[in-house]
């Protein structure tokens, strides 16, 4: 039932609104019930008191007067005098006994004094009565009232006392009566006190709030059920969150693994929702980069498979880092070749894409100089030498393949031209197509090569070989040359003073040897 209610918020809201509306109704009904009970008790008590007073009056006054033939008198010991009736003080004392011994606990009555007639037993006054009597005698105020409220958690009691003031008739009677404890009473003296006690047992009235009890019992049951439902839902949410966290961790792990197979640009486009994983292509103007390792097959024959694998992975890692730094989209690794392009998924314009691609290629070739030196120091006899080709033109780019397996790549004759340009480049060189050269001609030196033809492209194509790849404004600090009969690697920054002197001697001997001088002859003075 609670699940049924929780699944329907409008029903739960209706129940809550109804519960809020029932609260004042329950309070009103309990107040009405409490009022009815209090009025019933008061009416019953008053009826009993009146009945007791009427019975006392009928027995101790009327019947005595009617049963006596002579004159009736008022006396404190009226019971011993035929036809006598009680004086007011005696009447009050005896009414206190009648009311106090009737079996009802809600109301009590006492008429007491510390100056009782000698024929009567002395009254025992408690602390409240003694304090009230002393206060009344000190103030002599006929309207004075003393109250005391006491009780416990389960019952309350209120006591009220008023003074009993002597009038002229009372003074004459008391001063002349032989049993009076005093004979010097005056008008206005406080003879004693009249005390009324109202006792209210709270525990008896607890059931007067039955409607409120029923309401809170229902509200408590509803709250317990709702708490249980919330606890159940919290456990479900906790379990779902745990499952979601596990799923997210799994997806994050999978996505990180997938990212190793995709270019960062493609990876971000797919996971951000910019690109749909559907078979679709676009025709865009791209700058295509193609690189290949010269004589890779021959080099691999001199290396163990593990060593070749490590060397090739190191090469790809270094080149990929440079490509990513320049914003290239690395399409694929084809054996020892790298295919990358600029202009998709984001383009900065054909000119800026071409310049960025050239900067990347030059950075790669400069890094290769450093890598070849490191590889030689590690014992690699023939380090990799890379040729690069760059072309700018329109290609089809997008998802190619089937619905089950797709590859994000480029297709077109312009991509084939970039591969052909790489093939005619010198080791460590870069060759550009005419359109690429036209975009970068103002910032790089390039010499035209012999025209080439390519299947699918009409007419001859003039390639341009980039010059000054390793030139800079400052004097070069690294030299790395490898030809047949020549192997030179020099990093000036790594040489200390002694090593510089040895290098200078060796280079001078080598220079004279190249010029035809005998290596054992001292060098001729320069100039």
Automatic annotation (TrEMBL):
<feature type="transmembrane region" description="Helical">
    <location>
        <begin position="212"/>
        <end position="231"/>
    </location>
</feature>
<dbReference type="InterPro" id="IPR001054">
    <property type="entry name" value="A/G_cyclase"/>
</dbReference>
<keyword id="KW-1133">Transmembrane helix</keyword>
<dbReference type="Pfam" id="PF11845">
    <property type="entry name" value="Tll0287-like"/>
</dbReference>
<dbReference type="InterPro" id="IPR021796">
    <property type="entry name" value="Tll0287-like_dom"/>
</dbReference>
<dbReference type="GO" id="GO:0004016">
    <property type="term" value="F:adenylate cyclase activity"/>
</dbReference>
<dbReference type="GO" id="GO:0006171">
    <property type="term" value="P:cAMP biosynthetic process"/>
</dbReference>
<feature type="transmembrane region" description="Helical">
    <location>
        <begin position="12"/>
        <end position="31"/>
    </location>
</feature>
<keyword id="KW-0472">Membrane</keyword>
<dbReference type="GO" id="GO:0035556">
    <property type="term" value="P:intracellular signal transduction"/>
</dbReference>
<dbReference type="InterPro" id="IPR050697">
    <property type="entry name" value="Adenylyl/Guanylyl_Cyclase_3/4"/>
</dbReference>
<protein>
    <submittedName>
        <fullName>DUF3365 domain-containing protein</fullName>
    </submittedName>
</protein>
<feature type="domain" description="Guanylate cyclase">
    <location>
        <begin position="287"/>
        <end position="422"/>
    </location>
</feature>
<dbReference type="Pfam" id="PF00211">
    <property type="entry name" value="Guanylate_cyc"/>
</dbReference>
<keyword id="KW-0812">Transmembrane</keyword>
<dbReference type="InterPro" id="IPR029787">
    <property type="entry name" value="Nucleotide_cyclase"/>
</dbReference>
